[in-house]
Design a protein that fits this description.
The protein is of the alpha/beta class and 375 residues long. Helix content is 29%, strand content 16%. β3, α8 and β4 form a beta-alpha-beta unit.
């Protein structure tokens, strides 16, 4: 799980002049500064009035150094990386002017619990300062302390999700990578509902390369388990059926959509279906149309259930994907797994890496991953 980003709420609020209304007892970690700009900062602070060294560099070169500090950092922490621009903007007045003028510094957006006015102020600041550059966004609102008893008791609500989505929607043409992780369905439903209103415009999402929507509840993949909540089961068209010419990677974990919106999937190279309730999966005809509509598909991962085999519809006898190089299948029912695999014709070659789980999987029982076979 991505670490909480709330330690930066105070600094973000200060930037956006929200100190009077936003309170937080957290702060920017010194680790970010040490990892990214320690050597540069030591030079700058040792000669505060000197025009030699780093102080003599043109703004364009200083901006380039900031960008490379992110690209070549040793930090594996996405939090430090995302908040690096905020850190350097607090070093001195010149660094602040240069960093704020460098829109490409502010393109990584990370949000997590707890939702606060400081978090929303941070989001607005990054959206504004990133100017016209493509956005990479991670919204991780999973809560390890949630008791799983009632979705209404989860700290991340539909209203909070709607507020976030409303802020980023005007920038839809700049979305490049989007990840949205929740424990409950209502926030995901809000995302699907609000994004479908953008309609099937060809240029609605011209830069969107990857989308990962996850309702992180593997229990729903249990055999015989129905989708919950029933009132929100009706599927919604994925991005309103918009053509997504740049979309290459799609992961739907516990998230179902209107499977007729397959035109949005046409250019995919990687596709994941994981941990869905069986009843909300596409029927076999829809599933086949989705796969055949992705002629360049190279990686397919399915965990839990594939298509519903009780309503086949129109389907060829064999599904052939000649460009597939990676195939992963984890099943909860052996009989279903055998039937499902019989639908495929795999073009075996040295480049094909297929992994099929050999044990049935019960999401109610904690266990190590089953043994696998690779060939």
């Amino acid at each position: 799980m991505i670490r909480s980003f709330s330690h930066s709420a105070t600094a973000v609020s200060a930037i956006c002049n929200h100190q009077s209304s936003c309170k937080s007892d957290t702060r920017i970690t010194s680790a970010a500064t040490a990892c990214f700009i320690g050597p540069i900062y030591m030079v700058a602070s040792s000669q505060p009035h000197s025009r030699s060294g780093i102080h003599a560099l043109p703004n364009e070169i200083l901006s380039y150094i900031f960008l490379n500090a992110i690209d070549n950092s040793d930090s594996d922490d996405l939090v430090d990386t995302a908040f690096f621009p905020l850190t350097i903007s607090h070093i001195c007045s010149r660094w602040r002017k240069v960093s704020i003028a460098t829109g490409s510094l502010w393109t990584s957006i990370r949000m997590s619990l707890p939702c606060s006015c400081g978090q929303f102020a941070y989001l607005q600041a990054w959206l504004s300062r990133s100017k016209t550059y493509p956005l990479d966004m991670l919204f991780d609102f999973r809560d390890e302390g949630w008791n799983w008893e009632s979705e209404e008791d989860h700290p991340f609500s539909r209203d909070s999700a709607s507020q976030i989505i409303s802020l980023i929607l005007p920038h839809a043409k700049r979305w490049r990578h989007l990840e949205f992780f929740t424990d409950t369905w209502a926030p995901i439903h809000a995302f699907l509902d609000l994004t479908r209103n953008l309609g099937p415009s060809v240029d609605s999402f011209p830069t969107l390369k990857s989308v990962a929507l996850s309702r992180c509840n593997a229990y729903l993949a249990r055999k015989g388990q129905c989708f919950e909540p029933i009132a929100l089961r009706e599927p919604i068209r994925f991005f309103g059926g918009a053509c997504l010419p740049s979309l290459r990677d799609l992961s739907l974990v516990g998230v179902h959509v209107d499977w007729q919106s397959r035109s949005s999937f046409a250019n995919l190279l990687e596709l994941e279906f994981k941990f869905h309730a069986y009843e909300v999966m596409p029927n076999l005809g829809q599933f086949t149309d989705i796969l055949l509509g992705c002629p360049g598909l190279e990686r397919l991962a399915i965990a839990g259930w594939g298509p519903r085999l009780d309503a086949t519809g129109r389907v060829p006898h064999i599904i052939s994907m000649p460009k597939l190089t990676k195939f992963y299948f984890g099943f909860v029912d052996v009989e279903y797994g055998v039937t499902f695999l019989s639908l495929f014709r795999f073009h075996l070659s040295p480049s094909l890496n297929s992994r099929i789980l050999l044990q049935s999987w019960n999401p109610r029982v904690p266990q190590m991953p089953p043994h696998s076979l690779t060939y």
